[in-house]
Amino acid sequence: MKKINVAMVGGGFMGKTHSHAWKNAVHFFDLDVQPVMKVICDNNKKTAQQYADNWGWAEIETDWQTLTTRKDIDIIDICVPTYLHHEIAVAAARAGKHIFCEKPIALSAAQAQAMYEAAEASGIVHYLNHNYRRCPAVRLARQLIEEGKIGRIFHWRGAYLQDWIVNPDFPLVWQLQRQYAGAGPHFDLNSHSVDLARYLVGDISRVTAMTSNFITERSVAEAGGPTAFSAKTSRKSTGKVTVEDAAFMVVQFENGALGSFEASRFAPGRKNYNYFEIYGSKGSCAFNFERMNELQVFSRDDPANTQGFRTILATESVHPYMAAWWPPGHIIGYEHEFHHAVVDFLRAIATGGSIEPNFYDGMKAMQVLEGALESAETGKRVTLA
Amino acid sequence: MKKINVAMVGGGFMGKTHSHAWKNAVHFFDLDVQPVMKVICDNNKKTAQQYADNWGWAEIETDWQTLTTRKDIDIIDICVPTYLHHEIAVAAARAGKHIFCEKPIALSAAQAQAMYEAAEASGIVHYLNHNYRRCPAVRLARQLIEEGKIGRIFHWRGAYLQDWIVNPDFPLVWQLQRQYAGAGPHFDLNSHSVDLARYLVGDISRVTAMTSNFITERSVAEAGGPTAFSAKTSRKSTGKVTVEDAAFMVVQFENGALGSFEASRFAPGRKNYNYFEIYGSKGSCAFNFERMNELQVFSRDDPANTQGFRTILATESVHPYMAAWWPPGHIIGYEHEFHHAVVDFLRAIATGGSIEPNFYDGMKAMQVLEGALESAETGKRVTLA
Amino acid sequence: MKKINVAMVGGGFMGKTHSHAWKNAVHFFDLDVQPVMKVICDNNKKTAQQYADNWGWAEIETDWQTLTTRKDIDIIDICVPTYLHHEIAVAAARAGKHIFCEKPIALSAAQAQAMYEAAEASGIVHYLNHNYRRCPAVRLARQLIEEGKIGRIFHWRGAYLQDWIVNPDFPLVWQLQRQYAGAGPHFDLNSHSVDLARYLVGDISRVTAMTSNFITERSVAEAGGPTAFSAKTSRKSTGKVTVEDAAFMVVQFENGALGSFEASRFAPGRKNYNYFEIYGSKGSCAFNFERMNELQVFSRDDPANTQGFRTILATESVHPYMAAWWPPGHIIGYEHEFHHAVVDFLRAIATGGSIEPNFYDGMKAMQVLEGALESAETGKRVTLA
Amino acid sequence: MKKINVAMVGGGFMGKTHSHAWKNAVHFFDLDVQPVMKVICDNNKKTAQQYADNWGWAEIETDWQTLTTRKDIDIIDICVPTYLHHEIAVAAARAGKHIFCEKPIALSAAQAQAMYEAAEASGIVHYLNHNYRRCPAVRLARQLIEEGKIGRIFHWRGAYLQDWIVNPDFPLVWQLQRQYAGAGPHFDLNSHSVDLARYLVGDISRVTAMTSNFITERSVAEAGGPTAFSAKTSRKSTGKVTVEDAAFMVVQFENGALGSFEASRFAPGRKNYNYFEIYGSKGSCAFNFERMNELQVFSRDDPANTQGFRTILATESVHPYMAAWWPPGHIIGYEHEFHHAVVDFLRAIATGGSIEPNFYDGMKAMQVLEGALESAETGKRVTLA
Fold first, then answer.
1. Is the peptide bond prior to A171 cis by the omega test (within 30 degrees of 0)?
2. Record: contact D291-A292, CB cut-off 8 A
3. pLDDT at position A367, please?
4. Do B329 and C55 touch (CB under 8 A)?
């Protein structure tokens, strides 16, 4: 089996899911290429070494730029905070490396566009890791839509709710600082929802939005806490939260559907509540990541006395990706989406094809998100180009 | 027991729930006054007679204006299509009749304000029948908020979804015509949601909104079909739908909470899905009318390892109104809300007090709804006075 | 409309639901006969008078035997504790009165058989009020089974769980004394489940069972507490619980299905959890009374990738009984089952027909329940005749 | 880090989950010993080689007996059909190998006892893989019980339902033949439930049971189909199903609780529905493996108006095992239980301790299961020694 060398940049939480997927995807899926965990790169050498020791990355680097010059690297996996995506991705693309990039794509639509153009210019395979597209239940929703089971779509209702910063004592991590994260849940969470909406409903043409801040000042993280590639911490004992705490949008899709997006980190009890409902002329479906193995589907074609939302446990071998895993009813978890992403990414490389979502999708979603921020600021509805 | 005479105007679907409540509330609740079903008024004499025969209304009238001149009428119950509310309510108020009025309050905030001023000027008890406030689970939510169990409120997420006009063959009933209904689900459904949001969260200060139409032309209802007080049907075989099919809003509350409202009649599988979630600094709650006996409550005060949304079956004798009904776990239905409304309305009259929601609440909600329509039209966020 | 005179014996909780149904069924359903609330009978005159005053029963009696001799009584509604059913029913039947009888039918299968034989001998309409058969969602389950949607039935899994006597301070009410109740939850709750199982699956041929007691001594109810027709209270400060607290059975049905029944009053959190699941060769269904408007249905005929349990909200006009009530999604409650029972009972009288469940069904179910008690006592499986 | 050599016997579905866990547990958990995937043994050499190639087992063997003589093997992982467990386990124990054994333990309680005695005699660490004990939500249930949150236990209600053989065309696999499997779902599924019940409630003292067969003859599997260590297929085109299709039990626990167990492979719509409810004097809990990240908990200590079952999403770092995985709300799946088992097993070896469930637990559960089969056959309740 042909081998293909991977270098991963960044060693935080996401590096764990990525390492796991690079290591194990090949055990469950038939692949024509085998990923080799060649280099882990983190500007904190100790972190890099820990990743190498624990996950079996063969070598460590502390300067990501060396990766672009090494001939033996085929794939660069970008796992660092958002503000670094643009620079690394553009350099990697120019160096002809395939790119597996964490979301959100970048700090702005302009950065995203530059990434997209660089990637296309060099002909590499570029992937943006909106992992939820590869949840089997979500992919099933897509199949039903493609088969016409939902019909003409009237509504998208998306919400992505978490509660990890409700406590005022939670510190000022990089995700709460605009220079590193670009925005708050609007980029972190709504970016996922917009990606799913584009995947399942289509492009968005108009947006109106409002945002809120509930806690504006937080203690700075302890010294030494931030991992490499993350934000520098202030020396003051508290710092200003420079991103929104919640962002709600109403949109119109190009196909006429009316939609909503609601992202918040101030929803106690919602842990990773990535939720959507889609309503169409033939039926409806609903998804909640916290029960990610299930899809709710309603069909107006069912007999009049037995219509109702079905809870489909998407763990049958006929469901997307599931033949590779366990028997029906033996559910899978969050990390499996990353395995699926690695599989599809490697297959795209092997066949000379492409994969979605990619930097184009990231750019399009970022245009919507920027439009929403503009609307929130100006008080005016924004029409997207 | 003191008797108090009721005259109900209108004999449609709502007349059924009202008649049932006037007749039976007294059997379940201790009341100091006993309502007497004195007059049913409908401009269609046959309809009026049917109501009298079936429900025991003692007399019939066909002209509502006579009611305002009759000395023996204490309460006028307004159960007619929206466009007639203003005229009847103002006249009834001036005649010193207590008013039990169906929602939405009127065609406009100006009409609502006139109703409110007339009612206050004459010192009558006025009630606007947003029945969901008197669902025991909803009232429980209010109690928890008052007790501080939810804390500072961050979010309201309301949706009111139905699917009764998804079929393009559904005819052009009065609810789909602006001159009779004022607006579509925005007035019909969002009015309920805004009333609940004001009850549970507080007043709204800013709103941005978008609306959509999915089916713009429908067949006119069959000749003879419309009941009295309903719209005249056109002679053409089809007519134009002059109200929106869906209306989505994002709002900011005066207390800083960020909220959303989504009303649609194009949500297959949702029958009377009056749904809300409230998130606060101490906890959260969620309600779905289709499971109206339940309230979901999350508390951040629970031990860390046993936090989770509780499904409270609000059928215990400690829950609002429930001591009057059945043992725990023996659930109640839609109509019971109307019984509770009648009980509280009669008690307000007996004690010389007032009841909420009333015409003031209707006026305030209508200002929000009108602001949203303005926003949808102009593309600009609207700040409420 | 022909009038038919009702006399109700007993003025406890059940008298409330019955009075409500006798009073209101006629307002919602087309009936050829109109029930007249003629006599309320309770050996406590004050209770009887309260019922007459509150519910409009025209006259009171304190001796049920006078009812059997009055020519102007057509129906006797038996609403008293179990130990009185047999005597009243046999007398009523012999007097040619139609009988509407609360469940469980009696203290023993022998009593039930005598009731059945007396009723049949006199040609009256006899009804045993296992109200859950007339829940629209349950009746829908029956329709699906009759239409072959479930196929050959493999399993019945029934549970009826409550928690009202978990508190050791709860007093020794008549339901906890064998001489008045016959048995504990086995008669009170399993009788409902066995009735539903017979309705939906068929007759039972073999049974094995075990019972348990968790609290064996309780305080006697306060003096004066028990209403008429209820048990005499002991003078001692505590008394012995003489019925089981929980009864679990495994059964085989005549059609080969393997089933289970689990009744308990010691299940904290379950208020009136009358639950069943049915599994067959074509599909499955599940019901929980605490969400009585819903039926869960699974069909093996659905496409392989969209199979799942549907939550059918049985509130459409196509669902049994629902056309008489509210629009879709506007749910009904516990008491509506009693209205449906009154309607079907009156129609049986009007047409000279019969109604199920009746004393035959009560007798058959009681044979199963007695067999289970025998099994619990002897440790041997019991084959029913 | 000290290395410890593992040899796995058997290469079917379970070999996949075991291989995955041996390979990855070390990446997520801090361990003092590192498992080395030394030998895969299957009597079908091709299967063994495939496992070696795919999962990185270093060597292959085709005769399990050689493993017991190899000095370089520390752990034998028994992943073969049930009928082979006893022989391999006894030999492995005598050879001083630690044993990680799939469930059900063996064909009989006598075999299980022999395994237990051999294991104890040699002082090895023995583990029986009832994986559900290591589901975080299940372990949370145990913690709550230990902390007294459930109080005195009244009831266990267990069900384990699947539907994979409802189709009559499903072939006669080894699981349907008594000589290979010992029994049907009673051993396969009830063994899991009994293990959980013993873990959470305690030992069982009395049992009564019934079983059923719905399809008695099935086609034999295609030639060449069965993997090594599985049953020989008959040459006839059909063969007799020699195990039950469903087994229902009622039991009494030593602590007085009344319980039920219902196992079936004929429950359409239930895929891996390993379900239980526990009711006690202080509260209740409920678990459904198909939503394995959730535990339902009811507490009588909650305020009267806010009691209700909580849905605890057991994905917080305070929940058992979860600190090793993902952030809250990012759920885990079936396979993670195997990782947890490997971790605890290795820790037991490292510390010279033991682990539960082990062969003692397997023996105790098998005594209950055998008692139930005796009861089903004789029609008599069986008291366990």
1. no
2. no
3. 98
4. no
Three-class HEC string of chain B: CEEEEEEEECCCHHHHHHHHHHHHHHHHCCCCEEEEEEEEECCCHHHHHHHHHHHCCCEEECCHHHHHHCCCCCEEEECCCHHHHHHHHHHHHHCCCEEEECCCCCCCHHHHHHHHHHHHHHCCCEEECCHHHHCHHHHHHHHHHHCCCCCCEEEEEEEEECCCCCCCCCCECHHHCHHHHCCCHHHHCHHHHHHHHHHHCCCEEEEEEEEECCCCEEEECCCCCCCCCCCCCCCCCEEECCCCCEEEEEEEECCCCEEEEEEECCCCCCCCEEEEEEEECCEEEEEEHHHCCEEEEEECCCCHHHCCEEEEECCCCCCCCHHHCCCCCCCCCCCHHHHHHHHHHHHHHHHCCCCCCCHHHHHHHHHHHHHHHHHHHHCECEECC
- What is the spatial distance between Cα D91 and Cα C259, in angstroms, rounded to a whole number? 42
Residue owning tokens 């001023």: B117
- Give the pLDDT of residue C385: 80
The ipTM, to two decimals, is: 0.95
Touching partners of D (3+ C-beta pairs < 8 Å): A, B, C
The distance of Cα A363 from the centroid of its chain, to the nearest Å, equals: 13
Adjacent-strand bridge partners of B261: B158, B249
**C-alpha gyration radius of chain D:** 21
Instruction: Give the distance from residue B31's alpha carbon to the nearest chain A alpha carbon, in angstroms.
Output: 41
CA separation (Å) from C246 to B73, C160, C177, D203? 56, 10, 14, 19
Neighbouring C-alpha atoms within 13 Å toward the C-beta of C47: 22
- Return the biggest CA–CA distance within chain A: 66
> CB under 8 Å to B294, separation ≥6 — which residues?
B137, B287, B288, B311, B312, B313, B314, D308
pTM: 0.96
Mean pLDDT over D3-21 rounds to 95
Q: What is the pLDDT of residues A124-146, one digit of tens each?
A: 999 999 999 999 999 999 999 99
The continuous run of DSSP H or E covering D40 comes out as strand D33-41
Q: Give how far A154 is from chain C: nearest CA, Å.
A: 20
Q: Do B327 and C272 touch (CB under 8 A)?
A: yes
Interchain CB distance below 8 Å, C27 and B54: yes
Q: Are strands C153-161 and C273-280 parallel, antiparallel or unpaired?
A: antiparallel
**Amino acid code (one letter) for B32:** D
The 10 Å Cβ neighbour count of residue B224 is: 7
CB contact under 8 A, B271 and C332: no
Q: How far apart are CA B30 and CA B32, in angstroms?
A: 7
In this structure, what is the dihedral angle of CA atoms C95, C96, C98, C99, given to the nearest 10 degrees? 40
| Per-residue confidence band for B73, with pLDDT thresholds at 50, 70 and 90 | very high
Residue A182 pLDDT level (bands cut at 50, 70, 90): very high
Domains of chain D: 2-131 (3.40.50.720), 135-332+342-360+362-383 (3.30.360.10)
> Which chains are adjacent to chain C, needing at least 3 Cβ pairs under 8 Å?
A, B, D
Three-state secondary structure call for residue A149: coil
Helix (H) or strand (E) holding A320: none
The residue of chain B with its CA nearest to that of C310 is B269
Task: State the Cα–Cα distance between residues B271 and C34, nearest whole angstrom.
Answer: 33
- Per DSSP, the three-state class of C249 is strand
Distance from CA of D103 to the nearest CA of C (A): 26
Burial (Cβ within 10 Å: 0-12, 13-18, ≥19) of residue A70 = middle
Cβ contacts of B238 within 8 Å, gap of 6 or more: B172, B217, B218, B219, B220
Residues of chain C predicted below pLDDT 50:
223-228, 230-231, 234
CA distance A35 to A75: 9
